Amino acid sequence: MSIQVKEIGKNALWHLIGKTVSAILSMLVVYLLARYLGPSNYGLLSLSTTFIFMLHQFTSLGLDTSLPYFIPKYLNKSSSILKFVFKIKFIIILAACTILFFSSGIISSLYGNPELNYYLKIVAIITTPFMFLQLYPYVFMAFKKLKYGMYLDITFNLLKFLAVIFVLLGLGIIGALVGYGISYLLSCIFFFVFIIHKKYWRKTANKFNKGKLIKYSLISYAGSIFFFLSNYLLNLALGFNTAQLGYFDASNRISLLIFLIPTALATAVWPNIPKASIGDIREITQRIMKYFLIAILPMCLTFALATNLTISLLLGANYLAMSNVLKIMIIAIFFSAYNQFFESIAYGIGKPLYVLINYIIRTLIIVCLIPLAINYLAFGAAVAYLISIMASFVFLNTILKKRIKHPLKTYFIVILLNLTILPGLLIETAFIYKAIIYLLGAITYLVCINYFVFDKEDKTLFKSLLRKILLPKRSNKHI
Fold it and tell me: At what angle do helices 5-59 and 278-305 cross, to 10 degrees?
């Protein structure tokens, strides 16, 4: 096997640790901000920060996603590629932030909310370091050093608690945005100076074919624009009702916890694809998708059958009205996890056009279904999002069928084994008894997975990763 499963596992582990810790920290930030600001003000904050992601999507030029493809393929020219990408990004970002700063009044008048004008001016100021932070993980991914991404995720999300502190000091939405801005700036400077510049920014660099990179990047860029549209058109449609936007955004963030393991695996696989054969890719997709289902199906069932408890614990009683919204978003995220992995395969084989077509399809579906969001608010938006994700799943499976191999027999076994956790979710009894029954079911599930699903290579991989966690010095000899 030309793709080294252990190397992928090691990098996935770093990524998973970083994303898990950062997701917990991020959820705490969301929980505290949502609770102290309330649905309406939190929705207004979400609307303001939507423009950060909008600027990021429209100024990325696809350069981010080009790095994991071109750097592994042309490693001796990596420094030259990095300098070119950073220079172009800096020029484009400054121009975009300037435009947003001076057009904030027009945007706020469209929404009929004068306060939005001041918030968008702050967003324009704080967005530049945020955009570079979005580039850094692709740099680490390209060099197969995802542990640096772990450090970045944890540092960045710890610093975001400044937003909560400023809100508690009575600074409201402005305080939250300023807190975000400080976390962006400090993280951006630290990781550029001490990691990227120090390790990868060589003084001498070989020239590379900019034409190939630009072509790849522009196709990826078009894809990123449609990615933004497919993900944020619904946010913009709900922006006229900030409370409903708050429900939709909070549901999306909670359901993203399911995304942690799939994201880690997809990120670790991506830089290994460019030089892999079709047979290797089919073998690794079969194994990775098995891990996907084992990890995320129990999580989806748990969140879907315990939505009220989840919402009460994380957000409070004010958000219980979004229970059905969260259930729909959980189903959508389940299929979206697979879509993300398929997209990493497409980028890895040098076919960003597949991803572009995928997002065009999703965007067209969202545009057609915007009336659902207008008429049925957050629930309608969640249904529209689910339909677009399902269409994307079908398309990517079809166009990548030569490189994707689904372990259908394993799927059937894993689905049956998930019956072990259902009693703890469905039986009506005291919470402590439900928790014990659920825990026993989860242990039974893991034991059965080990005996009936994992093969010898799976067991070897997970033993190596456990040694990596528990005995880090010794584990270096194995991975």
Answer: 70
